[in-house]
Write a structure and sequence with these properties.
heterodimer, A: about 300 residues, mainly alpha, two-stranded antiparallel sheet, 10 helices, about 0% strand, elongated, B: alpha/beta, Rossmann fold, 6-stranded mixed β-sheet, 4-stranded antiparallel β-sheet, 11 helices, 10 strands
Chain lengths: ~300, ~280
């Protein structure tokens, strides 16, 4: 079109929204608000089910212990101390869920988020809205991490409530040494353990998110992340690998148990936190990089 | 100018050259039909227009702004490509509402009532997505593309899956949409009759190339009329796919020798195809 033509059409249809240039009502910084993304995810059956399990399972576990008459035997592990009180039951449920349940929860929220949009074909309409690609990932990752955080925190919190309701409010009896910690100190220690578990799960979040931008199958992304975490745990069991196991992301996932010693030590938790966040940073960087250059064919 | 596409090319990772030097212009008030058989490169072209695919060569400008993945230029464009994309667990209304909020614009500018009217949809949008037929889903997706009354509407095979009365309604909706001379529509189709009845202009594509372009009466009228008309068409748009010179020069330009094997079969000429479809 010549400048003459452009001038004529601008004169004929002078309204601002019909002139050349960008849409004045559009601003990239306002696209896909966190609130909107949270609502889009919240009403999904998957989200509801995940939170249902996180809220219901502690009661089922506690009821099983109560009805079963408590653990038999005279071992001093966390499982055998589960019925000592609410604090002990919360510590036990953390121990029971670290290796699998919490991994699945985080993989579910972080692995499903982009791949499910691709499988619904809604991803292309968000990108053409346009939600800039890096912003779409940032908003989705923020909401996914928020839901993951909520799920991981809700589980031990509900365990504490269920355990206290069924077994009473007593000091935390530490495994191994059988030292009793007063409730105040015990809550701080459990808080530290939970915070550390959240950090170790960052690796799972990064892995699931990378798979989520790489595939159009939500199940593939979630299952892939859980599967790789399990493989990492299995390799960790091979003692022949020696020191190499220390760079496995799951090698340090139970290091929070050192917070349940009479004399708490930070060393292995610091090492584990560094390993997990390093993995997470690399995996998330790869996810952003891959998505920025990706041809969207879903 | 709503849309200028020049010398656009796209080769996929497997080496398949889906779009090969296509140029398209869309002016205000026009409904431009992108006509060609399956595999002609129509959808790939529209996906590049939406910023979903990165072109290998060429440029796209929407109202004077270059289109790149996620660029602000896309805000003036409403699109429907390769079927609807709704969240199955939400109602239609929630889908449209959340989509519009995701674009970051104020609810007042969505023109929802007007859009539902244009798309011929009534009060039925409060039911969950799963409860509807494909035709309904399709019309809602087109309504979603029209939200905010964008100045350029991009529709990929919008009539697919609609029954004849719905097709008539959709045709009228498109005519109304571009009818005031300010907005423009680009619509792809593999059916000649659809383009003939709906569009003001047509771009004929085949095997990733533009074979002809012009007003519907010029192109389709001529091609169907007589052999002299077909010659005029070929001469005027310099687009004969049979010409060995143009084929060779294109292959040299894109630097590939695998074009022929990568292209979908069969030998296809726009003229025989146009005749056959009538």
């Amino acid at each position: 079109m010549t400048s003459l033509d452009a001038g004529r059409s601008a004169a004929t249809h002078g309204a601002a929204t019909h002139s050349a240039g960008p849409d004045p009502g559009y601003s990239p910084a306002r696209t896909l608000p966190l609130r909107v993304e949270a609502i889009r995810q919240l009403r999904r059956r998957r989200t509801m089910l995940a939170f249902g399990i996180m809220l219901g399972l502690p009661w089922i576990l506690a009821a099983a212990f109560a009805l079963g008459g408590g653990p038999a035997g005279n071992t001093t592990g966390l499982a055998s101390l589960a019925t000592v009180g609410g604090l002990n039951f919360a510590a036990f449920s953390l121990y029971a869920s670290t290796g699998f349940l919490l991994v699945v929860a985080v993989a579910l929220f972080c692995g499903d988020t982009v791949a499910s949009e691709a499988s619904w074909s809604s991803l292309r309409y968000l990108l053409a809205a346009p939600v800039p690609r890096a912003r779409l990932l940032r908003q989705k990752l923020t909401v996914a991490l928020g839901y993951s955080l909520a799920a991981v925190v809700v589980f031990p919190a509900m365990s504490l409530a269920a355990g206290t309701a069924l077994f009473g409010w007593h000091p935390l009896r530490l495994p191994g040494s059988l030292v009793d910690l007063p409730p105040g100190t015990a809550l701080v220690r459990l808080g530290i353990a939970l915070a550390y578990i959240l950090i170790t799960l960052l690796f799972v979040a990064g892995l699931a998110f990378l798979l989520s931008v790489s595939t159009d199958s939500p199940l593939g992304a979630v299952g892939g992340a859980v599967g790789l975490a399990i493989i990492s745990s299995s390799l960790d069991a091979v003692t022949a690998l020696g020191n190499w196991r220390e760079i496995l992301p799951t090698h340090w996932q139970y290091s929070w148990l050192s917070a349940l010693q009479p004399q708490m030590s930070w060393d292995s938790m610091i090492e584990g936190a560094v390993v997990s966040t390093s993995y997470a940073v690399v995996l998330l960087a790869l996810a952003f990089r891959r998505f920025r250059h990706k041809d969207i064919v879903s | 100018m709503p849309l200028v596409i020049s010398e656009l090319a796209k080769r996929f990772n497997d080496g398949y050259l889906a779009v090969d030097g296509v140029s398209i212009r869309v002016e205000r008030g026009q409904i431009v039909g992108l006509l060609g058989p399956n595999g002609a490169g129509k959808t790939t072209t529209l996906r590049m227009l939406m910023g979903l695919l990165r072109p290998e060569a060429g440029t796209i400008t929407v109202f004077g702004q270059r289109v790149r993945p996620g660029s602000a230029a896309l805000a003036r464009l409403g699109s429907f490509v390769e079927g609807p994309g709704f969240l199955p667990h939400l109602s239609w209304r929630a889908n449209l509402d959340l989509y519009w909020r995701a674009t970051g614009r104020s609810a007042a500018t969505a023109n929802l009532t007007e859009v539902l009217e244009i798309a011929g949809l009534g009060a039925a949008i409060d039911r969950p997505v799963r409860t509807y037929s494909r035709g309904m889903s399709q019309r809602l997706a087109i309504a979603q593309a029209m939200l905010g009354l964008p100045d350029l509407l991009v529709l990929d095979e919008p009539m697919n899956g609609l029954d004849p009365p719905q097709i008539r309604e959709m045709r009228d909706a498109l005519l109304r949409y571009a009818g005031d001379g300010r907005r423009a529509v680009i619509v792809s189709s593999h059916l000649l009759g659809e383009v003939e009845q709906t569009c003001t202009h047509v771009v004929i594509m085949g095997r990733g190339r533009r074979l002809a372009a012009g007003s519907v009466s010029d192109i389709i009228g001529q091609a169907g009329a007589s052999s002299s008309g077909r010659r005029r068409l070929t001469g005027r748009y310099r687009c004969s796919p049979a010409s060995p010179v143009s084929t060779a020069s294109r292959r040299t330009r894109t630097g590939s020798s695998s074009t022929r094997t990568a292209c979908p079969p069969p030998m296809w000429s726009p003229h025989s195809w146009v005749r056959a479809s009538r």
